[in-house]
Amino acid sequence: MSSALMSNAVMSGAGTIEVDGLTKRFGPVTAVDDLSFTVRPGHVTGFLGPNGAGKTTTMRIILGLAAPTSGRALVGGRRYDALIRPLREVGSLLDATALHGGRTAWMHLASVARSNGIARPRVTEVLRLTGLEAVANRRVKGFSLGMKQRLGIAAALLGDPPVLMFDEPVNGLDPEGVRWIRGFFRELATQGRTVLVSSHLMSEMALTADHLIIIGRGKLLADMPTAALISSSGRGDVLLRSPRAAELAGLLTAQGATVTRQDDGALAVAGLDAAAIGDLAAARGIALHALVPRQASLEDAYLDLTGESVDYRGEGTAPR
Amino acid sequence: MSQLTPVAAAGTPAARSASTPAPSLAIRALDLVASEWTKFRSVRSSFWSLLVAVVTPIGASALVAVAFANAPASAGPPPDPLLPEVLSLEYAVIAVSVMGVLAFSAEYSTGLIRTTFTAAPRRRAVLAAKAVILGAVTLAAGELVAFTSFFLVQAILAGHHQGVSLSRAGVPGAVLAAGILLCVCTMLGLALGSVIRHTAGGIAATIAVIVLPSILGLLPAPWNGRIGRFTLLDAARQVAALHPAANLFSPGLSLLVLLAWPAAALALAAVLITRRDI
């Protein structure tokens, strides 16, 4: 049994997470609203949404911790509660602080491993993989949040599963830990595993995930490769500085551009490219001190989708 | 951290479930019980609760026996010589009830319950595994206390010619029956901890279920007996007595009453445990 554990066997084609028409209501609140998506092996898939978007609820339903109001979630084609040795099929980390403080890291992992018939040497191995060997026999109440995150990841790895799910795993990690975890997720995906990582931080996912599932208010907003999301955003703009900024802003607006005054007096211009702006300024004899085209960041694309961006344009309405 | 060694040797795309047959139900049950045993013995509170549950009643039984032995002989019929032991066991009720409640409530309050139920999605099996471990431990502790107290109490009473010997008819059964009280209260705590999911609430509810009905013993006769015979503590005294009270159920029926309380609570827990979100 233990040798089978050590030699990884990532199931061919079976390691998908399928969410199908999933709805979850808590009284009058609809936390997850007819959500459907599929997470495939070999990628780090980012599960993105603002706080309260329904990410954790969706993950809890996938893991059989919460019952959906309607719809279903399958892992490797089966409901989670039908899995015989679930930790060998799905590794998960929902809340790194969910530990009994009086237990040592080793004992915590040993109790989890035992429940799925996982041999003791694997406990030592996952402690080594997550860099916790030195603190294995310390009570976890003394652990920093970052150490608890590592311990949670160690627990997720116990069964050497083809599917891994992490809820906000980067919280509490120091920069070195963040870099470690990114590499770790990529490594897991490269091995052919399905890796679903939730976050409310777009900037983090831009660096970690190669595929994104974005939800807002429980609904699916986007399900596409990270690169495609960036290029789909029309939010590129031009930053300019000018001693006659106010006059120029009026001219640009008259040409159909959207002009946003920045805090430092610069103007962010959308709807005209840098050449057109430069020509316009030159024709009027207005000096430009800066003219910088800016690519839409993934953050912008995300904010567009989730409608959480604050509108500085002065029309007084949110984008949605 | 640079030790990004592979999580395991990749590259064997064979389906694991095909290569290793599903373990039998017995093996999975054993794994769950072993997992709960690891949890139980890896926190200090288990040890301290047990120590209190064992030492307190043994000490108390000696004190109660001394009081019995020195009671004025004119104060009515001689007290039941087995009573000090069961009265003292009641001093351990709170310690073991708390232990039972914490088995679930500590996991709910920390969130560890999610880890437990993702590792074992069949939640009733987790309830059963916890019941097996806590039941075995507290049954052993209860019998240890019952027999130790018995010999201690009888040694003290013997000095006043009131003691009974273990060889006397009815005595071994009564002492054994007294020993199950701790297990009964632990199971009640385990079940209510699972239902209520909060430590303070679970402890309050368990103590209330055990202690509050005893107030009915204050009702005027015959109602004190008619209702009191259904209470947990009166049933426990009845099964542990050498001279059972006439106004309560027979010791056999009282044993059923005693077991019915945790059985009902565990049944309720088993129904609710699969119905609620975590």
List the helices and strands and how they pair.
The complex is a heterodimer of chains A (320) and B (278).
Chain A: H1 2-6, E1 17-26, E2 29-39, E3 44-48, H2 55-62, E4 70-75, E5 90-93, H3 105-115, H4 120-129, H5 145-157, E6 163-167, H6 175-190, E7 194-199, H7 202-208, E8 211-216, E9 219-225, H8 226-232, E10 237-241, H9 245-254, E11 258-261, E12 267-270, H10 274-283, E13 290-294, H11 298-306
Parallel strand pairs in A: 3-7, 3-8, 5-6, 6-7
Antiparallel strand pairs in A: 1-2, 1-4, 8-9, 10-12, 10-13, 11-12
Chain B: H1 16-19, H2 25-41, H3 44-69, H4 83-89, H5 93-110, H6 112-119, H7 123-158, H8 171-179, H9 181-196, H10 199-211, H11 223-228, H12 232-240, H13 251-273
Helix pairs in contact in B: 2-7, 3-4, 3-5, 3-7, 4-7, 5-6, 5-9, 5-10, 7-8, 7-9, 8-12, 9-10, 9-13, 12-13
Written description of the protein model:
The complex is a heterodimer of chains A (320) and B (278). Chain A is of the alpha/beta class. Chain A has 2 domains: 2-229, Rossmann fold (3-Layer(aba) Sandwich), CATH 3.40.50; 237-294, Alpha-Beta Plaits (2-Layer Sandwich). Helix content of chain A is 33%, strand content 24%. In chain A, the strands form 3 sheets. A 6-stranded mixed beta sheet of chain A has the order 5-6-7-3-8-9, with helices on both faces. Chain A has a 4-stranded antiparallel beta sheet with strand order 11-12-10-13, covered by helices on one side. In chain A, helix 3 (105-115) crosses helix 4 (120-129) and helix 4 packs across helix 5. The radius of gyration of chain A is 24 Å and the shape is elongated. Chain A starts with a helix and ends in a 14-residue tail after the last helix. The relative contact order of chain A is 0.14. Chain B is built from 13 helices and no strands. Chain B has one domain. Helices cover 69% and strands 0% of the residues of chain B. The longest helix of chain B has 36 residues, at 123-158. Chain B has helices at residues 16-19, 25-41, 44-69, 83-89, 93-110, 112-119, 123-158, 171-179, 181-196, 199-211, 223-228, 232-240, 251-273. Chain B is mostly helical. Chain B starts with 15 loop residues before the first helix and ends in a 5-residue tail after the last helix. At the A-B interface, helix 1, helix 3 and helix 6 of A face helix 1, helix 2, helix 5 and helix 6 of B.
